[in-house]
Amino acid sequence: MLSTLLYIQARNDDQLSVRRSRSLAILLLILIAISIPFALLDPLVSGNFYGLIINGVAILLFVGIYLINRSGRLALAMSLLLAGFLLIPLGGTVLTRTPFPQIFFPCLIVVISAAFGRPRAPLIWAAVASFIPFMINLLLYGSVLPPTGPIILPDGVSTLPILGLEIVAISLYWMLAAISWLSGNQLDMIIRENRASTQVALTATEALVIQQVDLASRNAQLLQVRQELEQLVAALAVPVVPVADGIGLLPLVGAFDTQRMAAVEHQALMIVSEQRMRALVIDLSGAAGMQEAAIGGLVRLCAALRLLGVTPVLAGLGPQGALLLSSSDHALPRTVATVQDALAMLRL
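Structure (tokenized):
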């Protein structure tokens, strides 16, 4: 039910205006709810129908403004509401022939303008409302100044004269306007600072997004370069070089673990088979610290070469490799001291 009453037909994507329209709708519903019992009870209290008429006109005004506000025309609704609060005291004064309590109602103009307008709006409307008591005097007494005598209550007690009460009312307008202007100005300053902070955050976010896109592009380029390097390393990891008719040279450089030795076995066998070599010289002079796993892979490679009809020859085997190889249970390949010795032997 409440969501239906507070529904606002948005005319644009400005959510701040929609929220302000919903707040105005709540205010108008409260004013309608307050005016209805006043309209019904006033004839019983005052003995006349003036209050009923005034409150009835106010209710019709509030309902019309409520419907305009629901259509999304916040500015028009606000203008009509403020104008209504200016005219209703004048109409009530003419009807009741008394300035009271009409001169105090313009306080609502200042408060409403502060709630829905700019920070300086309460000051502007306080200046406008300040003319209302003098207009009432003109309507009632034919002069901008009221009678100077004090007001005598039924019990004989005298109060301030009408002019004094009007000055009190005008003072209330300006006190409310000053307080509203001060609080509204501070709130507006906070909103501007928040908007500036939000803009800085959005700018930083956009810059971060650009950096992320740039980093993603660089990462893609680096990944491509890495793949190319890995392919190059894979191609150079087993450089079987033809050195003579049907004879190839496989120089093994650096340390060898199980994974690298498996790659050497696979690539060497594939190259030797494709190029139909009859012998392969495996140069171990550049291999660092041959481990047992690497020696096992080396023995398997030599065995596989024999099965392909290729003669394997080990050259440059170090002391540690020789010890590990001698303790192997597999058939030992032919070994020589240097690559030159291997080539000389194979050419015989």
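Residues 133 and 167 are 9 Å apart (CA to CA). The chain has twelve helices and seven strands.
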